[in-house]
Amino acid sequence: MGSKSVRETFRIPSDVDLAAIDPRGRPIGPKDKSAAADEMADLGTKLDGLQEALSAEAAGGGPRSVLLVLQGMDTSGKGGVISHVAGLVNPQGLAIASFKRPTPEELAHDFLWRIRKRVPAAGQIGVFDRSHYEDVLIARVDKLVPEDVWRARYDTINAFEAELDSQGVTIVKCMLHISPDKQQERLLARLDDPTKRWKYNPSDVDSRLKWPQYAQAYSDALQACSTEVAPWYVIPSDRKWYRNWAIAALLAETLAVMGPRFPKVDFDVQAERARVQAAKI
């Protein structure tokens, strides 16, 4: 994989410039779809074992969990990542939350209210399909709140994520970076395939027409909210197979660094083996 780790490769620099990051890039890892498929099989085995250890650690009283945050323009592949990456592990250890347009009840509370309710419990890998960052992205671009409100949310988000980290939640934030041309291709594919038309929303075109505004909103949010405890990673996402490999590898590397451990048992293993063997039915 070269000298850089997966996390080092995709972590945004301090002066992030999304325009300088190639959405079709493959800066590390497999160079074609076939090689990626082989590596995904190995990553699946690794992720499954690490998640099992994380769940077991929590059963023994450990507080730790992982939160994978997925943000990106329409068609960037948030759902695909959930299927192809989160799908590699035991679904019993997953907590998936999809944040759509806020309900009237949610709007009556602070913007983090609905987010706090879905933070993964100890032992879980949580996945956010969109997240609290919508409140500094669409809220900004569509002028849903005044500028002083969404700007103040950067500090609120950083404080919230620091709080989660202190509670044992390791946050992995991925911006799925696609090109305008690839988005157009995927939107047209949805219209051309009767089995995918349900995914299409006419409002997607309205958002597409605001691409420059969204690019600026993303750049500012990534810059303001990439911290030591919750850095942002930009994932080239024009190639679906590479996007999925990159996030699977990022998640596996993060869990490996965490090093979840199976708890020690408080009984004599050999004595219990003898009891099991003696328990004739």
Report the uncertain regions.
none
Radius of gyration: 21 Å
Helical content class: 40-55%
| Elements, N to C (H/E) | HHEHEHHEHHEHHHEHH
CATH domain class name: Alpha Beta
Largest sheet: 5 strands, parallel
Task: Fill in the keyword field for this structure.
12 helices; Rossmann fold; alpha/beta; 281 residues; globular; single chain; 5-stranded parallel β-sheet
Can you give a write-up of this model?
- With 281 residues, this protein is α/β, with parallel strands linked by helices.
- The protein has a single domain, classed as 3-Layer(aba) Sandwich (Rossmann fold), CATH 3.40.50.300.
- It contains 12 helices and 5 strands.
- The chain has a 5-stranded parallel β-sheet with strand order 2-3-1-4-5, sandwiched between helices.
- α2 (33-59) packs parallel to α11 (240-258).
- 34% of the residues are buried.
Brief write-up:
By secondary structure, the protein is α/β, with parallel strands linked by helices. It has helices at residues 6-10, 33-59, 78-84, 104-107, 113-116, 138-141, 147-166, 180-192, 203-208, 211-224, 240-258, 269-278; strands at residues 65-72, 94-98, 125-129, 169-177, 232-236. It has twelve helices and five strands.
